């Protein structure tokens, strides 16, 4: 997969050189290229922003540098999928990550200040798919950190990036993974640490009992921390034990369990 990133802070993307992403780049699975937006400015101050029309606080990123940058990075007829992080975009979810992981070429535009002049995205839509996405109901100083999050979420779904492909299918929120329940607690050696023992069932070798325990704990954690996710469960798919576990949380699992 090819990934291009346009930002006024290209140094922000040094983490692409380390851990799984760095290994994927060196293995040729990821071809990531970072571009400095200021390279498409034409004044001695490399200005990329100006005051908003209509007044108001903050600054808006100018269309000129962005238009030239997109033309240079993806000259027609090239048509990558343009991804723009913004609080006003659609939510970025695991399903979004899987959707974007199927693309051969992604181009990320990192906005700053009050955002990018809206004409840039309107013009880009005439020649490439454009996705405006949000990590959540909060505001960041810029799009760089959001792009790093999205690239990691997307890249780990690519074949060969993770050492164990089964890790992806077991993720919380993975499509079809326990109906989007949160993943339960995990443990490793030693079996006892600071007088706290690993749950005995995990040491039993009984794979059926272990699977049941993991599902029980996933149901419990979801009920405690993200009860709204329980609404996605299909009541017809719940067995008697599922209903028993959900009954431990009055007011949360009742609509699903009964």
UniProtKB/TrEMBL annotation:
Specify the domain of life of the species encoding this protein: Bacteria
Reaction equations catalysed: guanosine(37) in tRNA + S-adenosyl-L-methionine = N(1)-methylguanosine(37) in tRNA + S-adenosyl-L-homocysteine + H(+)
Identify the residues that bind S-adenosyl-L-methionine.
111, 135-140
Which GO molecular function terms does the record list?
tRNA (guanine(37)-N1)-methyltransferase activity
Q: Where is the tRNA methyltransferase TRMD/TRM10-type domain?
A: 1-231
- What is the protein's major site of localization? cytoplasm
UniProt GO BP = methylation
What keywords would UniProt list here? Answer: Cytoplasm, Methyltransferase, S-adenosyl-L-methionine, Transferase, tRNA processing
Q: Which family does it belong to?
A: Belongs to the RNA methyltransferase TrmD family.
Subunit record text: Homodimer.
The name this protein carries in UniProt is tRNA (guanine-N(1)-)-methyltransferase
